[in-house]
């Protein structure tokens, strides 16, 4: 097992995870190979184990990767890397039961104005795109980018649509969006490069609530049409 | 209590930041120059996590509605208390009604107005820092405006008239510091360094990168000859921290800073070490930065002079304040 901390690992061909330092107080663990839910669940298991380390201040789970932020630079980064690799190789997948959210969406209209672009890219009608979108169950893989924003896995590849080259400057919080193979609900009003297809009144973050984020990793989401405006 | 009389864009309440919520997508925020804030808090005998006002635009004018002891750190600027010049990095006491005016910096970019007792705003998710994107923390989650009032739990201190040597005067500057317009920073190669062409790797260290006007608390966009990848890569979203240098498709790097998103997806070529982030916080738009390659061990060692500087200051401040109090005590004893 190669646990060298090298910042030059060719990610997609290596069978072993890639581990690199980001400055002196952060270490990034990246699972090898393509995205799979199995790897994501193994990253969650790793996150759980790393949480118990006294030297870890914060953890940022990403998409098949995990960033560890230490309270102080580790004395021996190599030892941490070996611990991570060992945990990766030995821990079972972590199946998170999670909450199931059923979320009503007002598809199309001004707040889902990129529906047309998704249709054009997929070669499907608006009705088809909408029924494919609410026909899948999604899993919250990671939370990040903006407070409470969940990266949703489970988008049907038929409606996957690349991010826009020119982002919307003022997309509303609550916009139901597609970015490449991922789905989401925008957390903040502001610039956003994902494609909007609808809108929900749900707010995914409230700093006054405990916990402040509505979603947690492992939660599942089903969308249903509240209305459709074409 | 203080009242803001004059301010322009993006001056906010900040403390040392909001760690612990990145897994929920909440970035740390906090002072860009945490060293300057720590100096202010040490000078005033504050808690290290006490909040201050971070200035990015000038002039800034406030009125002390109650007596208060304060220090302005981070910058060298014309600072006046009711028209009397006061020095940055020095502890001063203002009487109720006095007006503090801070002009544009002669050196540095971000000024920190620290008050004895700190700025009293509600603690949200463990910090008083303003989270501008999330619109919470600080004063109602927004930049300060003229007419705002801010409270402090502190009162005027019995000792003033002492100060700190600015970090720039104490901490070692790097070799190649001949040009004052070039800021030298140490950086460690990061995850995707090897994915860049050898020419791009060389250019990363040799280019005097210009800080563009599209630079703010989120990050600095740098301008220079583009850095090319050997081949295109699609990265999965990964964690981001202050100092990380990402390269978007156009090839001009971005250094992520205090208000950075918690995750990103651009290739990571390097990370500016923690010990040098304060230098970046004080760099102005239009200035140039040079990155110098350093190892993990060098990056760790670089924190030692910073910590020693703060420790020395802590010791000196404690000694000065106790000896001054002692002298004051003896005098009053002699009178009696």
From TrEMBL, chain B:
The Carboxyltransferase domain, residue ranges: 23-309
Domain of life the protein comes from: Bacteria
GO molecular function, one term: hydrolase activity
Stored SUPFAM superfamilies: Cyclophilin-like
Keywords: ATP-binding, Hydrolase, Nucleotide-binding
Pfam family, one: CT_A_B
PANTHER family referenced in this protein's UniProt entry, alphabetically: 5-OXOPROLINASE SUBUNIT C
Protein name in the entry: Allophanate hydrolase
Biological source species: Komagataeibacter xylinus (Gluconacetobacter xylinus)
């Amino acid at each position: 097992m190669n646990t060298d901390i090298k910042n030059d690992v060719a990610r997609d061909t290596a069978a072993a995870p890639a581990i690199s330092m980001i400055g002196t107080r952060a270490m990034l663990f990246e699972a090898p190979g393509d995205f799979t839910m199995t790897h994501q669940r193994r990253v969650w298991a790793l996150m759980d184990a790393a949480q118990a380390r006294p030297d870890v201040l914060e953890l940022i789970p990403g998409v098949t990767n995990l960033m560890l932020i230490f309270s102080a630079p580790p004395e021996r980064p190599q030892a941490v890397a070996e611990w991570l690799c060992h945990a990766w190789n030995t821990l079972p997948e972590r199946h998170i039961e999670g909450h199931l959210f059923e979320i009503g969406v007002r598809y199309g209209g001004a707040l889902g104005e990129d529906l047309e672009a998704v249709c054009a890219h997929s070669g499907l009608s608006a009705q088809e795109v909408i029924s494919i979108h609410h026909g899948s169950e999604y899993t919250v893989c990671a939370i990040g980018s903006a407070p409470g924003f969940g990266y949703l896995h489970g988008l049907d590849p038929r409606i996957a649509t690349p991010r826009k080259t020119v982002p919307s400057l003022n997309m509303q919080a609550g916009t139901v969006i597609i970015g490449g193979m991922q789905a989401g609900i925008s957390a903040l009003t502001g610039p956003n490069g994902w494609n909007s297809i609808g809108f929900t009144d749900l707010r995914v973050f409230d700093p006054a609530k405990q916990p402040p984020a509505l979603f947690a990793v492992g939660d599942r989401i089903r969308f249903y049409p509240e209305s459709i405006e074409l | 209590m203080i009242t803001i009389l004059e301010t322009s864009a993006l001056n906010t309440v900040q403390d040392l930041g909001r760690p612990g919520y990145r897994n929920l997508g909440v970035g740390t925020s906090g002072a860009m120059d945490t060293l300057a804030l720590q100096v202010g808090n040490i000078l005033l005998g504050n808690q290290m996590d006490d909040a201050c006002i971070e200035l990015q635009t000038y002039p800034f004018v406030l009125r002390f509605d109650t007596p208060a002891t304060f220090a302005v750190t981070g910058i060298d600027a014309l600072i006046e208390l009711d028209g009397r010049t006061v020095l940055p990095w020095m502890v001063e006491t203002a009487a109720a009604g006095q007006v503090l005016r801070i002009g544009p910096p002669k050196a540095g970019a971000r000024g920190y107005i620290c008050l004895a007792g700190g700025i009293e705003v509600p603690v949200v998710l463990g910090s008083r820092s303003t989270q501008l994107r999330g619109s919470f923390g600080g004063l109602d989650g927004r930049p300060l405006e003229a007419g705002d009032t801010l409270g402090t739990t502190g009162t005027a201190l019995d000792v003033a008239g002492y100060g700190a040597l600015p970090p720039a005067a104490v901490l070692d500057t790097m070799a190649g510091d001949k040009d004052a317009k070039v800021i030298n920073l140490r950086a460690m190669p990061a995850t995707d360094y090897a994915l860049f062409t050898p020419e791009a790797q060389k250019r990363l260290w040799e280019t005097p990168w210009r800080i563009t006007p599209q630079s703010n608390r989120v990050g600095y966009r740098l301008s220079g000859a583009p850095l090319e990848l050997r081949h295109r890569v699609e990265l999965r979203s990964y964690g981001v921290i202050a100092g990380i240098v990402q390269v978007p498709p156009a090839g001009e790097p971005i250094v992520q800073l205090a208000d950075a998103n918690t995750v990103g997806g651009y290739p990571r070529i390097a990370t500016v070490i923690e010990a040098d982030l304060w230098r970046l916080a004080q760099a102005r738009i239009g200035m140039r930065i040079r990155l110098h390659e350093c190892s993990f061990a060098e990056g760790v060692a670089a924190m030692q002079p910073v910590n020693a500087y703060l420790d020395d200051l802590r010791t000196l401040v404690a000694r000065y304040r106790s000896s001054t109090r002692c002298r004051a005590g003896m005098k009053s004893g002699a009178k009696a």
